[in-house]
Amino acid sequence: MRAVKLKKPGGLENLNLVEIEPSEPQFGEIRVRNHASSLNFHDYVVATGLLPVDDGRIPMSDGSGIVEAIGPGVTEFQIGDKVMSCFFPHWADGRADDAAKLGGVPGDNVDGFAAETVTMASSAFTPIPAGYTFEQAATLPCAAATAWRALMVEAKVRPGNTVLVQGSGGVSIFALQFAKAAGCHVIATSSNDSKLEKLRDLGADQLINYREFEKWGDKVQEITGGCGVNVVVEVGGSGTLAQSVRAVAMGGHISMIGVLTGIQGEIPTAELFRKNAVISGITVGSRSSQVDMVNAINITGIEPVIDRSFGLEGLGEAFRLQESQGHFGKICLVF
């Protein structure tokens, strides 16, 4: 089978397409004929060497395909089932209260889904939504599961809440879609007017160009009549957190997901305390949470937004598109 391996020290020029032998499933494992993957920021930092991994690691955390072989002891899946990966294969349920739950990340701690065949524990997979293509399903395990946990598990959004999403990446678009499906009012920010219009087409109720309104937290307060938003899906990090604190409502919730603008920065603690707001750190979610998300998608009919897809041999080109930030929604691999 074909796979992409990353040679140390990393870098897009060190992604090598190779032939490897499929592994036979052992006790509790299944072998999946992988048909699609999707790019996340986590995959980019692995591929570029910013997050060091073992030499020869097969990257990519997300994948979807068909079960083609089953090892002893597997009862949940049968040959022919359509499945998708879990970002944290060891986190079955509950809180992220044990470091062991956050181990085994595909494409990082172990080989991932830039391969035509993958053999892992059956617990590292869930069913895909009904009617989804493999390409659509491959967008879910990291980005959609993160948005789901941010809104439904941590912030516990309710109909009538106001949610703010930042930008037009995969997590933010899924958060917009989940929030609208839950009956929420959504405010979206971006620096690109064309992307803002696309966010409007997906259901965003108000739009803010943060190039035009640098202190966009004040603009949020204006839009909401001084109430602020119930939930902020914070993907920027230190460079945007102060504005998120300004934008959030009394007793509101900031789901901290990304660090695109830096890993350290000042927090306006006085305003945070005054508002009795909560900041939650979000790193994807549990397998149980992913199953809940799939059940919700089956009812709501939400479909992922996919910008462009590449073959396995085009992984480097796909990362360059991601690097350019010229995409809207998810970038996929199909093979």
Compact overview of the structure:
The chain is α/β, with parallel strands linked by helices.
What does the model show?
The structure is a single chain. This protein is an alpha/beta fold and 335 residues long. It has 2 domains: 2-139 and 304-334, Alpha-Beta Complex (Quinone Oxidoreductase, Chain A, domain 1), CATH 3.90.180; 145-281, Rossmann fold (3-Layer(aba) Sandwich), CATH 3.40.50.720. It is built from 10 helices and 15 strands. It has helices at 41-47, 134-137, 140-154, 170-181, 193-201, 216-223, 238-247, 269-275, 287-300, 315-324, and strands spanning 2-6, 15-19, 29-38, 64-70, 82-85, 117-121, 125-127, 162-166, 185-190, 206-209, 229-234, 248-256, 278-281, 306-310, 330-334. Strands 3, 4, 5, 6, 7, 14 and 15 form a 7-stranded mixed β-sheet that branches. Helix 6 runs parallel beside helix 7. The protein is globular, with a radius of gyration of 20 Å. The N and C termini lie close together (11 Å). The model has no long low-confidence stretch (mean pLDDT 96).
CATH superfamily of the largest domain: Medium-chain alcohol dehydrogenases, catalytic domain
Total separate domains: 2
How many beta strands in the DSSP annotation?
A: 15
Number of helices: 10
Overall morphology: globular
CATH topology-level fold name of the largest domain: Quinone Oxidoreductase, Chain A, domain 1
| Oligomer classification | single chain
